[in-house]
Amino acid sequence: EAEVAQSPRYKITEKSQAVAFWCDPISGHATLYWYRQILGQGPELLVQFQDESVVDDSQLPKDRFSAERLKGVDSTLKIQPAELGDSAMYLCASSPRTGIETQYFGPGTRLLVL
Amino acid sequence: KQEVTQIPAALSVPEGENLVLNCSFTDSAIYNLQWFRQDPGKGLTSLLLIQSSQREQTSGRLNASLDKSSGRSTLYIAASQPGDSATYLCAANSGGSARQLTFGSGTQLTVLP
Q1: Beta carbons of B98 and A104 less than 8 Å apart
Q2: CA–CA distance, B93 with B51 (Å, rounded to integer)
Q3: Which residues of chain B have pLDDT under 50?
Q4: Shortest CA gap B106–chain A (Å)
Q5: How far apart are CA A58 and CA B93, in angstroms?
Q6: What local confidence, expressed as pLDDT, does residue B96 receive?
Q7: In angstroms, how far apart are the furthest CA atoms of chain B?
Q8: What pairs with residue B27 in β-bridges?
């Protein structure tokens, strides 16, 4: 069964350092989402791609966060510089297209900023 | 802006009990309502998706209902098992052409053997 892949699974960094997360969606899925989930809360959307284009990044802290999906397949989310409050689970999800289908989630990357 | 609330935040039941998890949303203009399961430190697994035109969906021991007019959904779990222990999240799919999910904070379920 096809799955969404994410790496690394865990990342520990010091504040002010740069970190990057990678996501490979299910093959053929045009829509890709990055979420941030703080412990004890539900995921919050950071950025949504349709193919290589950003559909919505209104909740992305653009002063420190950036996301790209250059060829419309895999994606990278970067934080520079990391702050203590960035400690969270970063989840990637994909769906065949933007719309009413369910989203398929990867295992997530757990980030701890010291 | 859509807001989703889940009550209770945590629930502990003995094995074999039937239970209900509640989800409420503020904007009834949704395309669908989805229930997910999340095991500790893991990603989300989709359980059920109810289209806005539907009243309920069933999968095995799980039954989800949707009442758009009142802004509520329930997830019914029959004959609970220790393996059902996880956090259950509901998400409302709304928001124009982007069709985004707004999640609740989840209900952490523990089924005691």
Answers
A1: no
A2: 9
A3: none
A4: 6
A5: 17
A6: 61
A7: 45
A8: none
